[in-house]
Amino acid sequence: MRDPSAPVAAIIVNWNAAQLTLDVLAELERVEGPPLHFVVVDNGSRDDSVARLRRERPDLDLVETGENLGFAGANNIGIRHALAGGAYDWLLLINNDVEVEPGFLPPLLAACADPTVAASGPKILFQKPPDLIWAAGGRLRVRETVTREYGARQPDGPLWSRPAEVDYLTTCCLLVPRDAFERVGLFDPVYFVGVEDADWCRRARDVGLKLRYEPASRIWHMVAVSTGGSYTPIRTFHTGRSNALFARRHFGPLRMLAFLAANCLALPAAFLRELPRRNARAAVAKARGIWAGLRHPLREPPPRL
């Protein structure tokens, strides 16, 4: 069994959002459970984030990438940095645009005490309204988008308050034991933004590990604050690209055809939906992203550590 009282390294990626990072650090300092060591990875911020973080938190373990490596690449830098000293048995990957309950960490640790579990994730609610589910675990699927969060936009209640084994957990908040990264490997930086969590979860299940949704742990998500919203051209481009890369890696020929057919139906509908909102270019950007993902060289996933 793993030791739920062992030290935890919390990995937080910052990109032009020093205030959000400072806020979540203040929240995490109040949580119950084993001591947290904070590793903040500044992912090539173009504002004064680094100077501000160093000024206001001189004690902070701050790692600078020097350029934007994407969410997967930045998390990998933080994970390697935390694991290098060998002091941490647990890694908590958490967004800076969340609020947490003081008791959110111990249930996640307890859920991962079983050595067959690769990761655990909390019940994630919208910040506004705070009783609406954003994700209660999730599943992988063959559609225009390859993940689906359970309970999305549904009121919190008994249905979402039972622990469960799931196919997919989001890196919005993910607790991973050190040995799981050693067995599965790191996130694949080919996924610049989005779907890196789905790919890692699929690879974890492929080596026989489980993923646990733990509703006794609760956090609230501001939802795409750090990237300027969830349906913008830059976001949809990377979503489309990452979905196509995932489909190429994990789908066979028939499922790949189903993925392409779903997008051929969904993209025109999205274009028409966004047209009166003057946001049709977001749908066009997603189509461009899918085309880019279909053409991008696809190498083997990261090896085991």
Description of the structure:
38% of the residues lie in helices and 21% in strands. Strand 2 (36-42), helix 2 (49-56) and strand 3 form a beta-alpha-beta unit. It has helices at residues 18-28, 49-56, 70-84, 105-111, 178-184, 196-206, 233-250, 253-274, 280-295; strands spanning 8-14, 36-42, 61-64, 90-94, 98-100, 117-126, 133-135, 138-140, 147-149, 164-165, 173-177, 210-221. Helix 1 runs parallel beside helix 2, helix 7 (233-250) packs parallel to helix 9 (280-295) and helix 8 (253-274) packs antiparallel against helix 9 (280-295). The mean pLDDT is 95. It starts with 7 loop residues before the first strand and ends in a 10-residue tail after the last helix. The protein is built from nine helices and twelve strands. The protein is α/β, with parallel strands linked by helices and 305 residues long. The radius of gyration is 19 Å and the shape is globular.
